[in-house]
Amino acid sequence: MLKANHVTGGYNSSFSIKGVSFTVETGEFFGILGPNGSGKSTLLKMLTGILPLQGGSIIIGEKPIHHYHPKELARMIAVLPQLNRLSFDYQVKEMVALGRYPYQKGFLSLLTKKDYEIIEKVMIETNILSFQDKSVQTLSGGEQQRVFLAQALAQQPRLLILDEPTNHLDLAFQKQLLDTLKRWAIEEDLTILSVFHDVNLASLYCDRMMLMKDGQVEGIGKTEEVVYEKKIQAIYETEVDKQFHPTQPSPQIVLKPSKLTEKSTKVSLECLSVQKDFISFHSPIPLKTLSSGVINAGFGWYSTFVNRHVEKSYNCDDFQEELTSYIAEKGFNPETTVGMMTAVILNDASWTFIEKDGLSLFIIVTAGTGNAVDVTSDRKLTSNHVTMGTINIWLIINGRLTDEAFVQAIMTATEAKVKALVDHNIKDELSNTIATGTSTDSTLVACTQTGSSFPFAGSATALGKAIGKGVYECTVNSIKKSEKRMKTK
Ligand SMILES: Nc1ncnc2c1ncn2[C@@H]1O[C@H](COP(=O)(O)OP(=O)(O)OP(=O)(O)O)[C@@H](O)[C@H]1O
């Protein structure tokens, strides 16, 4: 659809676009990104014929851009420039109707039935129908942006060129505009080329993107090929981290603010509270957490952890909602709390605080063996109702862990838990083999992310060894307490 070959040019000043080459396929959503002054708008001006080329060529469709008659080019390309102050006034629907100009035959020709149908369709798509009779000058920046997009779509172009289309739009309208564009790309084979400042939005919507710096191409490819830490850091000259969107395979970039002061806050046993029906750990600062909790599982930053005792017979269809209400009732904020449940009597919990050789960590285990399971046995799953977890392990660490260390800490804790069950000869009653855990065990690792750094937490490291030994001892102690209580019943 568009082929730029060694495009060179610019203003009669020091800045120039230097031999930029790329292609955009029909129906593709192509993003152009780069720091301020990198030449994105200048390149767009060349692609739309506003600035002449000093070298190279631009092919649109089958022929070079300068071979098009202006009206023919307007049926091929529509442009949505950056929003400027309006010096004229039109009604919204008149403004959109201007988009039909390339299809009008003679001077002063009237709009046809088809024109009106298209104008209405694009006003519905861009959600501006409700204010179609208003004056464009009375609209907010975001509303005006949608009117200009409707006008561009009314042009029924094969290629739509946009310069920062989400400027002035709130979150909901950014999504709505980009969803609309994406739908037009897929359903109408519209080719879209857009300049973006927001790397994350571009990563979510573009099929491919081009990164520019100093008038040159610094990378072209699928979003996951060009949006990575080192590349973005080098181009924008700022410190960033890369993460993935929680539900899309799109890389997302987060800024790393400079820390002017870093308080090395430590958590201690004072944060722990053991009540009859729940154990809580409340940290003075949010901790980076990885868990399989009932609420707020996965990675996140949380300051409160609650392990609630429930009866073995506990059965609730919406147990997440029920636990959320319970946590709120106890005066904790469910948004900042990881919640777990256990059928273990909380007096049987066992904990230890390890503070030696540069390590500082807290381990607490609630372990009962009521529904012990050998995960390797062929036992059949008996019903959909699962009895609430019995072995819950919390590791709370004063220190800075990498993501590898978080995962390794969970592995190490699990290995230690299994060893405790093996040594204690805990059996899966259905298979009569040694159990590896219970039916709904949970683990949580939470770290202050201040102070000492721990790149790894496997069995080859001091941290891993401390986790292994601590989890083993706490699990054995908790099982023993439970057994003793059962015997004295
Ligand atoms: N009309 C002009 N005459 C002379 N120089 C210009 C003109 N317009 C832009 N420039 C210069 O060209 C360079 C590239 O500008 P351009 O607007 O293309 O960058 P950009 O990547 O779009 O930046 P931004 O992200 O800030 O919009 C800048 O150094 C700018 O000062």
Topology at a glance:
Layout: E1 2-10, E2 16-24, E3 29-33, H1 40-47, E4 55-60, E5 63-64, H2 70-76, E6 77-80, H3 92-97, H4 113-125, H5 141-154, E7 159-163, H6 171-187, E8 191-195, H7 199-205, E9 208-213, E10 216-222, H8 223-226, H9 229-236, E11 240-244, E12 251-255, E13 272-274, E14 278-291, E15 298-309, H10 319-329, E16 337-342, E17 350-356, E18 359-366, E19 372-373, E20 392-397, E21 400-401, H11 403-423, E22 427-428, E23 433-434, E24 437-438, E25 442-447, E26 453-454, H12 462-487
Parallel strand pairs: 3-8, 3-9, 6-7, 7-8, 15-16, 20-25, 21-26
Antiparallel strand pairs: 1-2, 1-4, 4-5, 9-10, 11-12, 13-14, 14-15, 14-25, 17-18, 18-20, 19-24, 22-23
Helix pairs in contact: 4-5, 11-12
The chain binds adenosine-5'-triphosphate.
Please explain how this structure is put together.
- With 489 residues, the protein is α/β, with parallel strands linked by helices.
- The model has no long low-confidence stretch (mean pLDDT 91).
- It folds into two domains: 2-255, P-loop containing nucleotide triphosphate hydrolases (Rossmann fold, 3-Layer(aba) Sandwich), CATH 3.40.50; 269-487, L-amino peptidase D-ALA esterase/amidase, CATH 3.60.70.
- It has twelve helices and 26 strands.
- The chain is elongated.
- The strands form seven sheets. Strands 13, 14, 15, 16, 17, 18, 20 and 25 form an eight-stranded mixed β-sheet that branches. Strands 6-7-8-3-9-10 form a six-stranded mixed β-sheet, with helices on both faces. Strands 2-1-4-5 form a four-stranded antiparallel β-sheet.
- Bound molecules: adenosine-5'-triphosphate (ATP).
- Adenosine-5'-triphosphate binds next to α1.
